[in-house]
Design goal:
By secondary structure, the protein is an alpha/beta fold. It contains seven helices and ten strands. It has a single domain, classed as DHBP synthase, CATH 3.90.870. Strands 1-8-2-3-7-4-6-5-9-10 form a ten-stranded mixed beta sheet, sandwiched between helices. 42% of the residues are buried.
Length: 195
């Protein structure tokens, strides 16, 4: 099992290793942008299921989305009200963002409301993420289980490896369309006043 300190986790992520850390929903499996294909292989995940870009601050995520379409002010109001939190915004990607998920024209962005996740992301910069599980299986919630299932993934050990992490509820996923916000998955965050 590869349970490691936060310092080792961050160093591993920077060097291109796949890592796992707690979030406010379920633990994430993550990598830097140019190692995304390793996540797809590890999870046996279909290529048409894009990864989410997670960062510690909204300003970092702006480098990957088209802030002119829709205008930044339109979606920034929702982002500022609900992030950090269990909300994923799917927005038109700019050219840099399109390279993160080949074939995709949109990009899901998220800032987790979890001190450990933010501490990792502040040190690594933005990471492509998904839940810690084989594709189609329920997300793993214990860091020890993640380390056992994925022995080559660096898993943060700063918690009891047998403790359940996160709420277990998925993030709400909303996509910007020409007609406004479309809820793709209702999770723990409600955006009724923004539809």
């Amino acid at each position: 099992m590869a349970l490691v300190s936060m310092a080792a986790l961050v160093a591993g992520a920077r060097s291109g290793r796949i890592i796992s850390f707690p979030t406010d929903t379920v633990p994430a499996i993550a990598s830097i942008a140019d190692r995304a294909e390793a996540i797809f292989a590890l999870k046996e995940r279909p290529q048409d299921k894009p990864l989410i870009l997670m960062a510690a601050r909204l300003a970092v995520l702006l480098d990957f989305v088209d802030t002119d379409r829709p205008a930044l002010t339109i979606w920034q109001r929702l982002a500022c009200a609900k992030l950090p939190g269990a909300l994923t915004l799917v927005l038109p990607a700019n050219e840099r963002g399109k390279r993160l998920n080949p074939g995709a024209t949109t990009l899901g962005i998220r800032i987790p409301k979890c001190d450990e996740a933010i501490a990792v992301l502040q040190q690594t910069g933005p990471l492509l993420t998904t839940s810690a599980n084989k594709s189609g299986d329920p997300p793993l919630r214990k860091l020890g289980e993640i380390a056992a299932c994925f022995p080559h993934v660096l898993v943060m050990r700063d918690r009891d490896p047998n403790a359940i992490t996160g709420s277990g509820l998925p993030s709400t996923v909303v996509k910007w369309t020409d007609d406004g916000w479309q809820v793709l998955r209702q999770g723990q965050v409600r955006i009724d006043g923004y539809l």
